[in-house]
Design goal:
The complex is a heterodimer of chains A (248) and B (302). Chain A is mainly α and 248 residues long. Chain A has ten helices and two strands. Chain A has a two-stranded antiparallel ribbon. The radius of gyration of chain A is 19 Å and the shape is elongated. Chain B starts with a strand and ends with a helix. In chain B, helix 4 packs antiparallel against helix 5. Chain B has 302 residues and is an alpha/beta fold. In chain B, the strands form three sheets. A six-stranded mixed β-sheet of chain B has the order 7-8-9-4-10-11, with helices on both faces. In chain B, strands 1, 2, 3, 5 and 6 form a five-stranded antiparallel β-sheet that branches. Chain B folds into three domains: 150 residues, 3-Layer(aba) Sandwich (Rossmann fold), CATH 3.40.50.300; 66 residues, no CATH class; 63 residues, Alpha-Beta Plaits. Classes of the chains: A mainly alpha (248), B alpha/beta (302).
Chain lengths: 248, 302
């Protein structure tokens, strides 16, 4: 893949409201996350639990907003190929359907990375702005950000694959909706159940949570999320390779 | 005469069903090749195989002197423009934005794009979104996308589909101009009339098999027109000839099919004279190219 192919993917986003959806993702994550963090009684601006409420806010913001919005973003971008005969146009210009999917993941992935990192920075900046006395937990903060980013990219890749394979985009949106429910319930189920779907990994990314009514610091499930990222990368590579060999 | 496309026993099967069977396509360089056949006869599948979008079950295709396969496809596609099925175009973007996408895909300079847009006479429409285009404009944009790489070979799958007579004539005129400019054009249609006047070589496909390939004149000469006989007693003549020939009575004229040479014609006349039936006129039916085409595709071959 070259820069021209990537530029094309950004060019196709014009008038598709992809940027708007990305902005909505940022606003919803920030709104939900900051609201739930700041109104939390544990947000006392003194102890480390204040940072923990903000970390929890990042997790809950993304697990609530990302599954559906990532589905919508992928769906709109891929559907343009179905509607505009883009698969054939690209194939007859030497860009295979699998290559087109990879370009889409890269282009949309850059936007999602931007949103994830920006939201993380915004939450940290909010903590500093409130003057929290406890030291900023840099390790867990960066770890949570990376974990959420990996889960976001995996969910995005899944929806790109779904949107490319299934022309009816309602299917992808429906699965996104289901993903939101699974992401929410995964915080309340045993960890092994959370491992079963990509959306469950939002819960496994948590860097803080309540144990017996007390807010405590967690370490995100790095190994599980690294495993998810690896498996998803292999599956996505295999899918796009098979898509390359599929007859159009 | 060098060939820009040549296939050897090209076959595509889905399960037991052969969509294209043992196709030996021969497209001379610089011609307009009319690829004809009823809907479902295998035209689009053949074109897709020529573009390596579909892998043949057996046989091979040579395009621009090289085998067309996954290894050569990327390089060859840089010299082949194509419009397969419906015209491409991102509806939410303008014509100009669509052309820029093609420009980046193929790493073309601005002159290539300007040339293609002017060739299809779309230069005044490029700032409109494609969703506002008429079908004819979409077809022309699709052809501009195919032309942007300044191809040696242009493959167009039913480019006049859905167009009004003026649009069809405009596409015909465009194909003539392209051929005059040295581009080899392969154009498919299920209607002979649409490409009859433009094509210099015709290939007719029926049920996945090539049933004719050659010039317009060769097509005429290869198909034997019916023999029409006017005589003094048509009913008795029909009875006399029905035993040996397929014979129908139309008004008071006898129509005999499959009478190929002059000796056979003389035999028929002698048979009628032998029955004391006066023969007033013997002539061949006047055939349009359309009727030849219909006869060929309905009957499955020459």
């Amino acid at each position: 893949m070259n820069a021209r192919v990537l530029t094309n993917e950004f060019a196709k986003m014009r008038h598709l409201h992809v940027w708007l959806l990305v902005a909505v993702l940022f606003v919803v994550v920030a709104g939900i996350g900051l609201y739930t963090a700041v109104i939390n009684p544990d947000f006392d601006r003194v102890t480390a639990s204040s940072w923990n409420t903000l970390l929890g806010g990042i997790g809950s913001g993304f697990s609530l907003a990302a599954p559906l919005l990532l589905a919508a973003i992928a769906s709109r971008h891929v559907d343009a190929e179905h509607q505009g005969g883009g698969w054939l146009l690209s194939a007859t210009s030497g860009l295979t359907p699998g290559g087109l999917c990879r370009a889409k993941l890269l282009a949309l992935g850059l936007l999602v990375t931007g949103v994830t990192v920006s939201a993380s920075v915004l939450f940290a900046a909010t903590g500093f702005a409130f003057g929290i006395d406890a030291p900023w937990p840099a390790g867990r903060w960066i770890g949570l950000t990376l974990c959420v980013l990996v889960v976001n990219l995996v969910v995005l890749a899944l929806h790109i694959v779904l949107a490319a394979r299934i022309e009816n985009q309602l299917v992808g949106i429906g699965i996104g909706l289901l993903g939101t429910i699974l992401a929410l319930f995964s915080t309340a189920v045993p960890a092994w159940i959370a491992h079963l779907t990509p959306w469950g990994y939002y819960a496994l990314s948590s860097a803080s949570g309540y144990v017996d009514g007390v807010l405590v610091a967690f370490s995100p499930a790095y190994a599980s999320i690294a495993g998810l990222g690896l498996v998803a990368a292999v599956v996505f590579a295999l899918f796009t390779r098979s898509f390359d060999h599929q007859e159009i | 005469m060098s060939l820009i496309v040549a296939t050897e026993k090209l076959t595509k099967k889905y399960g037991d069903r052969a969509v294209v069977q043992d196709l030996d396509l021969r497209i001379p360089e610089g011609c307009v090749y009319g690829f004809l056949g009823p809907n479902g006869s295998g035209k689009s599948t053949t074109m897709k195989m020529l573009l390596s979008l579909i892998r043949p079950t057996s046989g091979e295709a040579h395009v621009l002197g090289r085998p067309m396969d996954r290894a050569t496809r990327r390089e060859l596609l840089g010299q082949i423009g194509s419009l397969i099925e419906s015209p491409p175009g991102y509806a939410h973007l303008t014509g100009a934005e669509n052309m820029r996408i093609v420009q980046r895909l193929l790493d073309l300079d601005d002159q290539h794009i300007d040339f293609a847009v002017r060739t299809v006479r779309m230069q005044d429409q490029m700032n409109k979104r494609v969703r506002e285009f008429s079908l004819g404009m979409k077809q022309r944009l699709g052809i501009a996308m195919a032309l942007a790489r300044q191809p040696k070979l242009l493959i167009l799958d039913e480019p006049t589909n859905g167009l009004d007579p003026a649009g069809i004539e405009e596409i015909r005129e465009l194909l003539r101009r392209l051929a005059d400019g040295g581009v080899t054009v392969m154009v498919s249609s299920h209607l002979l009339g649409e490409i009859d006047k433009t094509a210099t070589v015709l290939g007719i496909l029926s049920q996945g098999r090539m049933i004719f390939q050659g010039s317009r004149d060769e097509l005429f000469s290869a198909a034997t027109p019916d023999l029409l006989i006017d005589c003094s007693d048509p009913h008795r003549a029909q009875g006399a000839l029905a035993r040996a020939h397929g014979c129908q009575l139309e008004n008071s004229t006898l129509r005999l099919t499959g009478i190929e040479d002059d000796r056979a014609v003389a035999g028929v006349v002698a048979a009628l004279v032998g029955e004391s039936i006066g023969v007033h006129g013997v002539r061949r039916d006047e055939q349009t190219l359309e009727s030849v085409f219909m006869g060929l595709t309905a009957g499955g071959g020459l």
